[in-house]
Amino acid sequence: MRAYQDFREFLSVLEQQKQLLRITDPVKLEPDMAAASAAATRLGNRSPALLFSNVAGYQNAQIVTNVHGSWANHALALGMDPETGIRDQFLEFVRRYRMFPGQLERVTSAPWQEVVIDKDINLFDIFPLFRWNHGDGGFFIDKPCVISRDPDDWTNDDVENVGVYRLQVKDRNHLGIQTVPQHDIAIQLAHAEARGEDLPIAIALGNEPVITLMGATPMLYTQLEYKMAAVMQGQPYRVVQNEKGLDIPYGSEAVLEGRILARKRQPEGPFGEFPGYYSGCHQYPVIEIDRVLHRKDPIYESVYVGRPWTELDYLQALTTSAPIFDQVNATFPEVQAVNALYTHGLVLIVSTKVRYGGFAKAVGLRVLSTPHGLGYAKVIIVVDEDVDPFDLNQVMWAISVRVNPAGDVLMLPNLAENLLDPACQPSGMVTKMIIDATMPVSPDIRGDYGEILETPVGTDVWLQKLEALTKELRK
Amino acid sequence: MSAIAQGAIQACPRCRSNTVAVRAVSPLAGVWTVYGCDTCFYTWRSTEPETNTDPDQYPAVFRLAAADLPKLQVAPAIPPLQAKKP
Ligand SMILES: [Zn+2]
């Protein structure tokens, strides 16, 4: 466990660990940023962050992408060994998640206060903004932490919210924001708009890596992301409170202060989104920026979104799996692990002990009633505890031999779904499916299973031995 | 003609409105210009391919008609105004 003071400290750790690549060749904002970042996601488990420092049209702009873009970088973000496997990262993430809440540490100044711009703001001049995908409606800030409070409960820290929402830069000082109804900020905006008031917000860019993960975690409305970040890094989370009372991470590169304008909507989009398709154009809320603060020569961070897998899939992998596991395991302690790695958990695999016939289907139904299940989980595969849900070879084996579609596939028509799921019919509605890939147990007497093959005695010991030997062999 | 010439105000590649403004020019002079449309908020850089910058080559699937913009789905819905407390 380790707390990174700021974004730059994490980048230097990535560099020490050979997990950051400096790109000093000249690059154009379009199409090089997208092409290089898409290519980086194909480098596998040790894919590095990319730091571009020779950007066409700029004297000294620095852009970094793919910061969370591999299991190695994800492990380092959590202060773990970069070789840690997915299942072990999941178990450790859950262990820390269950220590919630940690503490806030409020300090009075931060490095991002070095430069203050409060008139003639032009976001295009301050940050090297660019287009990710050809059909995007514009240039998007897509890895921000957006901080807001509830106008009906302003001083209650526990309902303060930190979320990652896509922001389209509309003109020099206006942004569009996508707030899906399932998101916490949509509740706060509804309260402000019912009053006819703007909603003050702060937008933190270039953040230390843990708060970005927390902003992408679907926690309960009354759980403050900073208090989760504190248990994830093993230290109180350091913030600076602004004049409006919004708590802003100490370790950010830049902060935009502004307001979501009350009762105003404007065209926004399209934007290439996490399902691997463009989301359409909508009338979305509008943010007006009043003040920009940043470190000298701020490093601009963005996340490439393309066909999965990309960096975005790492941001919403364990951060999606852990809360669902925690909520389902609270009702069914038999549940062992949840893999919600695929497209933000649209497909999800649960492993569980099975107490009696039909039990696994009840576990699948419980997943659908979690907050994330209400808006995302669409295909749920339930496997026995002897199957590692993070090992797809094992999962496919379970589906191969433990599923008889006649009795193991439940179809549940017309359930609620995130409108970004392109399979929705109509938008916001979908049929969901539970595949029971556990072996039938009494009184479910279907199938003719006989005796299962056992793993040879001593396999684990041999595995460790062979791993060490092959590592030696490759030196 | 240079792609970054600034004189002629062009139509928006996406919605063909004439409400186009310069949003920024490159800090190193003459490398690029960023334009934006105040009707549909499409934004583009002069150095992008013509399928992003030229109304005639902009892909049909992404085009928008200015008249259709108010018909786009509103999300989230705007709630009714609360009666002010005295
Ligand atoms: Zn336009």
Quickly list its features.
heterodimer, A: 475 residues, alpha+beta, Pnp Oxidase, Chain A, UbiD C-terminal domain-like, 9-stranded antiparallel β-sheet, 5-stranded mixed β-sheet, 15 helices, B: 86 residues, mainly beta, 3-stranded antiparallel β-sheet, 16% strand, extended, binds zinc ion
List the helices and strands and how they pair.
The complex is a heterodimer of chains A (475) and B (86).
Chain A: H1 7-16, E1 20-23, H2 29-40, E2 49-52, E3 62-65, H3 71-77, H4 86-97, E4 104-107, E5 115-117, H5 123-126, E6 140-141, E7 145-148, E8 161-163, E9 167-171, E10 174-177, H6 184-195, E11 199-205, H7 209-215, H8 225-233, E12 237-241, E13 247-249, E14 254-268, E15 271-272, E16 278-279, E17 282-294, E18 299-301, H9 311-315, H10 318-331, E19 335-342, E20 347-352, H11 359-368, H12 371-375, E21 379-384, H13 392-402, H14 405-408, E22 409-416, E23 429-437, H15 459-474
Parallel strand pairs in A: 1-2, 3-18, 4-12, 20-21, 21-23
Antiparallel strand pairs in A: 2-3, 5-17, 6-9, 7-8, 7-11, 9-10, 10-17, 11-14, 12-13, 14-17, 15-16, 19-20, 22-23
Helix pairs in contact in A: 4-10, 7-8
Chain B: E1 20-25, E2 33-37, E3 43-45, H1 50-53
Antiparallel strand pairs in B: 1-2, 2-3
The complex binds zinc ion (ZN).
Zinc ion binds at residues 12, 14-15, 17, 37, 39-40, 42 of chain B.
